[in-house]
Amino acid sequence: MAEQRTLAIIKPIAVQNGHTGAILHTICANGFKLRALKMMKMNKTLAATFYQEHKDMDFYNDLIDFMTSGPIVAMVIEKENAIEDFRNLMGATDPSKSKPGTIRYQYGTSIRANAIHGSKDVESAKREIDLIFTKKEIFSF
Questions:
Q1: Catalytic pick from 19, 25, 54, 117?
Q2: pTM above 0.90, yes or no
Q3: Domain map of the chain by residue range?
Q4: The CATH classification of domain 3-137, taken from the options 3.40.190.10, 1.10.3720.10, 3.30.70.141, 3.30.420.40
Q5: Is 132:120 a contact under the CB 8 Å cutoff?
Q6: Does the active-site annotation cover 117?
Q7: Residue 112's pLDDT is what?
Q8: Running DSSP on this structure, what letter comes out for residue 133?
């Protein structure tokens, strides 16, 4: 199987709570290679575009407010079967339903403040990576 890329975002609450280094360590220790990494603050326009699929959901405005509330750490990560493997490493959206050893189990505090985002499929990964990173910011080696 070929290497696959996906987007991961350490959410504002996890950055604020000082979990960035531990989460990055967990990702790398599970065989993912970092291909791009940056700390940034999403503005409302970017967040609205990023989460457009949730536009009609009752939690949408709270999600936009949360994701723009502080810095995030965005990254492109790569390995074979990256999307599925990373979704398993993240754990369930609700940290209380996540398995021990997952990022959300360890660092999430609620469904909304679940510590991390990961692309759900190949199409989402491409769209999300293109929204956050330029081609020049992504490394191959």
A1: 117
A2: yes
A3: 3-137
A4: 3.30.70.141
A5: no
A6: yes
A7: 86
A8: -
